[in-house]
Amino acid sequence: xRLVAEMEVPGILASAPNPEKGxxxxxxxxxxxxxxxxxxxxxxxxxxxxWFRESQPGYFANSRLTxxxxxxxxxYFLPTYMNNxxxxxxxxxxxxxxxxxxxxxxxxxxxxxxxxxxFKTELPFLGVNSWLANNPxxxxxxxxxxxxxxLTSDPGILADFPWEATAExxxxxxxxxxxxxxxxxxxxxKFPHIxxxxxxxxxxxxxxxxxxxxxxQGQSHRVKFQAHDFFEPQQRKGKNVFVIQRVLHDWTTxxxxxxxxxxxxxxxxxxxxxxxxxxxxxxxxxxTGPSFRDSLQHLGNKFTSIxxxxxxxxxxxxxxxxxxxxxxxxxxxxxxxxRTLPQFEEMIKVADMKIKKxxxxxxxxxxxxxxxx
Length: 373
Ligand SMILES: C[S@@+](CC[C@H](N)C(=O)[O-])C[C@H]1O[C@@H](n2cnc3c(N)ncnc32)[C@H](O)[C@@H]1O
Hints:
3-stranded antiparallel beta sheet; 12 strands; 7-stranded mixed beta sheet; single chain; binds S-adenosylmethionine; about 40% helix
């Protein structure tokens, strides 16, 4: 994917005399200078996964998916930066899990991961004084990639939660560890009537990528960046909606509890905390279970374990692939994980809080409302 994205194959096929028909492998080879025989096998594999089409024997054309890897598209950094980094680091996953030192194998330290093994560094991947903090171009690539991931989850997150009612009468919606501000920008664009300010809190090195992104979305007047270390006391007090998305999965239970504890300290009856993150379900399948019709009766606008029909896994198999993939990503980079419901409850209990409600969404993540005990 990195190869075709960097070679700008989508653009080359889009400028073919007939883009529906596309180009032959020899024509692509003439345009790009790569070896036709070597490149054809790569294109065929990508066709089999839907990334391109073979419009007629020997002709390759763009598919709808190709737009995702087009230069200039919002998702361009996934094939060209993040997936590449994930592939490099994943190569050391076996050496992390089965490390010769038992202390390393059982460590929960975020400096004892596949990332440090692969990159031969002592620095943790992200956070204060991390590898990202010391490598601005990587911080930029990572910020852009997180923004692209946001595009995959924002539609469901926005559609399946009462954002306008929750923001009513509030001073601000504050996205803690909000990266480049994708969620705030998506919320601001979809809900023009929300009066509350949108604040993206993240480390100072994220400011540049965040402010550029917010400006590119035309939201600089409503969405503001604020440098804030979430291990320090929360500075924003008042009537606020705190949101924390895809952050707690980067940290151990104790550290994650510390992060939400700092938000808990400023919560009162006029403010709330929403955790947006996946909840991992078991993957076993049983030969017994309700009919499809009865199973679907359990679907509703709240998190619930839907009883699977016979031979369908509890996590609905491949539908939960992204959650399991992200689970391993945070393992290789941060020595942490996506949580199961009991692990989620444990983290919230350690922070001396409790779950009010878990909202299932059509995204791959749930929205968990958390309150003080
Ligand atoms: C996995 S990214 C998630 C970003 C964003 N919430 C999203 O969903 O796209 C984790 C974010 O936490 C930020 N972060 C890490 N350590 C932090 C700290 N100590 N204080 C504030 N933000 C931090 C990183 O800069 C990064 O933007």
